[in-house]
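Q: For a teaching handout, I want to show students what a protein-ligand complex looks like in token form. Below are the inputs, and the small molecule is arginine. Please produce the holo structure.
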Amino acid sequence: MKKLLLTLFVGLCFLGRSDEGMYMPFMLKQNYKDMKAAGLELSYKKIYNEKKPSVKDAIVSLGGFCTAEIISPKGLMLTNHHCGYDAIRANSTPENDYLTDGFWAMNNGEELPIEGLTASIVVRIEDVTEEVLAVVDEHLVGMERYQRIQQVAGEIEKAAVQGTHYEAKVKPFFGGSEFYLFITEVFTDVRLVGAPPSSIGKYGGDTDNWMWTRHTGDFSMFRIYANAENKPAPFSMENRPYVPKHHLPVSTKGVEKGDFSMVMGYPGSTDRYLTSEGVNLAIQKDQPTRVEIRGKKLHIMKEEMDKSDAVRIQYASTYAQVSNYWKYFIGQSEQLKNNKVYDKKVTIEKGFESWVAEDDSRKERYGTVIQDLKDAYKVIDEVTYTRVCFYEAYYSIALNRFIIAHAKLKKLLEEEAPQEEINAEAEGLKAKYQDFFEGFNYAIEEKTMAEMFKVMAHYIPEDQRSEKLNKIASDSKFDFEAYVTKNLKNSVFSSKERYDEFISNPTKAQIENEELLSFGIELLAKYREVNSSAEVAQANAKKTKANRLFIEALRKMNPKKKYYPNANSTLRLSYGNVMDYTNNEGKAYKYYTTIDGLMAKEDPNNPEFIVPARLKELYEKKDYGQYAAQDGNLWVNFISNNDITGGNSGSPVMNANGELIGCAFDGNWEAMSGDIAFEDNLQRTISVDIRYILFVIDKYAGASHLIDEMTLVE
Ligand code: ARG
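A: Here is the structure, written as tokens, with arginine included.
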């Protein structure tokens, strides 16, 4: 009965609470009461503390694109399978296919060094707003404002880490009205420890991606290594496992509806203060174009990947990345409409306008904000196809970036620069691109390039197209295949042998022959001309300023509301509760899934839904050991109303005591508009239940030595 009353009470509290918010963890004082009300037991100082070990010391920015958490005193880290995906792929071959079969190091010696992967931990954070804003006055906008801020930020960064091994970065918040300095310790010897097979780590594949219900064991494990002083050092056999200031205890107690849940991590980017015009632009032009371009890329890759295991492994991460945001943009467009985000934004803007109208000083400061945004978007709208095409169809493709990287070399050769200068440039390129061809498949690249030029010629307005693009388009009647084949076939940029020979001794005659380089240079120049024209630059400056003032005004309008800045890949905390939801059509979803649901989805004919034999065996024997849930079953995933986004992938979900209960990996379809407007009643974070992770490590993979390292709380 007591429990029932408590549940009722907690239930009532939820009605009034929204769990929107990616808060800066060093400013949690404002949230602390609310967090206690949600169930938090831990003191504020145990979560974020610059003087004593705290939870923050276990939260890692993995490579700058994902989050990981330290879960043992020996630097063992947990993150998502999709975060470790490229590291797993890079170590896979058709004979030793860790993507398909999984990988488990049975001792430290077997852990695989991952070149280029970093693990960064926050040491301290400082408010440097005053120092930064001192160098700009209110009237300064656009590039000039940006550059002055960059300069002073650079000085602050340099001074902050002088004489230390730390790194420093100043970042803007709230549209550029506040600035914070982040001091971090960046480890560069990071090794792969374990990963389940994709049939567990990516179970449900692209079909289930961005959706609840889910049955995915989306986790992998890495370890940080440090030198004898426990400091960051490049990979070396002498390095030893890093001893962290804090590691998260792991709870095997499980989750229940209403439980407090807290996520700390590095969300990449949100646009929560986007105005109605911006929503319109996203739905009308920006996102459909991205979806179309990505769809074409996926189709081309898939065709070749299906033909060969080597190509499948080669392109696995590129494919996954393109596909992840292909589906993201489909979902975002759809849900911006379903959740009536445009109307919601208009309501906010109307409220803002009435607030401004109440007072002369407000009129003076904010009076033109809405009109400025309208004017700015009108201009930006006209170059949207050009911008989206340039990035999605040209610059995001590795081959294009590789080609265009040779623009400077071409210039040096043409200007007959001193030979040392030419050699230095060529050596730099050679070193940078020594592994380029490992990720290169001729058929995929050729088809993609032709298709992408076609898209560009189709979408970019004629007067914004490069001359060459126009000419090839009209000569070939929009059929770029012949053009690409002719110019890629014997290019030095399409075979390792030709490239190595060329770059060892580059000549003017050779580089002038590279049509795709000349074309790329011209495309880029035209793009810059269009996108950085005085008119567009002015519109962007106007928009940036109006947006900053709009955010400032909202915060003044609602002084009690806990505003939080847009995500920007800095450390954030979100708190809420384990919770189910009912979608707009009235369909109710439970807050957890089990291995029964996983088995029910099994489809031996669909590569996305194959259940590995060993997992089936354990399921049939109901051999879940200490990892079984309160009902005796094996729980797989659960949801909570935490506020996360891309970059949070791999983040720890912690209970009221700061113990690990899950690893966050996705969001649900109904709230795909969430990066632009948080949906209180719909938006959920999807996490792997930590008990399923432990079960896979221990029972499935037999890597119990990893469990022994952890601090389990029962
Ligand atoms: N949507 C998830 C995210 O962006 C990634 C999930 C990966 N799984 C997949 N099937 N692609 O964080």
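A: Two things your students might notice: The first strand starts at residue 59 and ends at 62. DSSP finds 29 helices and 22 strands in the chain.
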